[in-house]
Design brief:
With 227 residues, this protein is α/β, with parallel strands linked by helices. The chain is built from nine helices and eight strands. The chain binds 2'-deoxycytidine-5'-monophosphate.
C-alpha cells in the first residue's frame, strides 16, 4: 500500500494537532507538529535576546539552533528538543505564544524550518500540521485538510489545555492571543496562512474527536487506496 503525505492547516487552536495525531496513530504514520519548531526557535530568540529586525543576528542565531523530535513513550507522542534540551512544555508558555507569530514572519526562519520539514516528508507516511503545509511545505500532498472552528470554541479548548498544564492565564488573554496570532499568521508576506485551493475544509466546532477522526480517516483512505 502506498503511503501518502497529509497536510493539515488552520487557525490557532482549532484542533489541528489533535487531528494530525489521531490520523498518524490510525495510519501508523509519523506526526510532525511544525508549530513546535517555530516555538522552539522563538524560545531560543527570547532567551538570547535576538533582535528580530537584525537579519545578521537572526542568521547567526539559526546556525546555533538544532531542532529534533524525540518520541516520548509515556505520552505516545514526540517532544520538541532545542539543542538537545526537552522544551516541549516551555514552548507552550504565554511568552512564547506572544512572540512566535512575529518570529515566524522572518524569511530566514521560514527557510530554515521549511527545509527541515520537507526532509521529514521525503519518505511519505507523514501527517504534518501548521499554517503553510498544504501551500508551501508540501504543495503536492495527496491529502490537504483545512481545519476551522468558531473563535469561542477555540478559546475554550485552548483555555482548558492551559489550565490542565497549570499555566496561569485568563479567557481574555487567551482570546486576545489567538486573534493576534491569526491576524499576523494570515497577513504576513511570506507563505501566509490560507486554505490551499485543493484543501478540504473540516469545521469541527460541533464534532467530537471521534467524529472528526472518522471523517478525516475516510478522506485519507480514499486517497491511499486510489494512489
Ligand atoms: O501550531 P502552533 O499554534 O503551535 O503554531 C505557533 C505559531 O507558529 C503560529 O502562530 C504561527 C507559526 N507557524 C507558522 O508560521 N507556520 C507553521 N507551519 C506552523 C506554525
Amino acid at each position: 500500500m502506498n503511503k501518502i503525505v497529509i497536510a493539515i492547516d488552520g487557525y490557532s487552536s482549532c484542533g489541528k494537532s489533535t487531528l494530525a495525531k489521531q490520523l498518524a496513530n490510525a495510519l501508523n504514520y509519523v506526526f510532525v507538529d511544525s508549530g513546535a519548531m517555530y516555538r522552539a526557535i522563538t524560545l531560543y530568540f527570547l532567551r538570547n535576546k535576538i533582535d528580530n529586525d537584525n537579519p545578521q543576528a537572526v542568521q547567526q542565531a539559526l546556525q546555533n539552533i538544532s531542532l529534533t523530535f524525540k518520541f516520548n513513550a509515556a505520552k505516545e507522542s514526540s517532544d520538541m528538543y532545542l539543542n538537545n534540551e526537552n522544551v516541549e512544555d516551555l514552548i507552550r508558555e504565554m511568552q512564547v505564544s506572544q512572540n512566535v507569530s512575529k518570529v515566524s514572519t522572518l524569511k530566514d526562519v521560514r527557510v530554515f524550518a521549511v527545509a527541515q520539514q520537507q526532509q521529514m516528508g521525503i519518505a511519505k507516511g507523514v501527517v504534518m500540521d501548521g499554517r503553510d503545509i498544504g501551500t508551501a511545505v508540501f504543495p503536492d500532498a495527496e491529502l490537504k485538510i483545512f481545519v476551522t472552528a468558531t473563535i469561542d470554541v477555540r478559546v475554550e479548548r485552548r483555555l482548558k489545555e492551559m489550565v490542565e498544564k497549570n499555566i496561569n492565564t485568563t479567557r481574555e488573554e487567551v482570546k486576545k492571543n489567538l486573534e493576534e496570532r491569526d491576524f499576523i499568521d494570515s497577513t504576513r508576506a511570506i507563505s501566509p496562512l490560507k486554505k490551499a485551493d485543493d484543501a478540504i475544509v473540516l469545521d469541527n466546532s460541533f464534532l467530537t474527536r471521534e467524529e472528526q477522526l472518522t471523517i478525516a480517516l475516510q478522506w485519507a483512505n480514499e486517497k491511499i487506496y486510489s494512489n
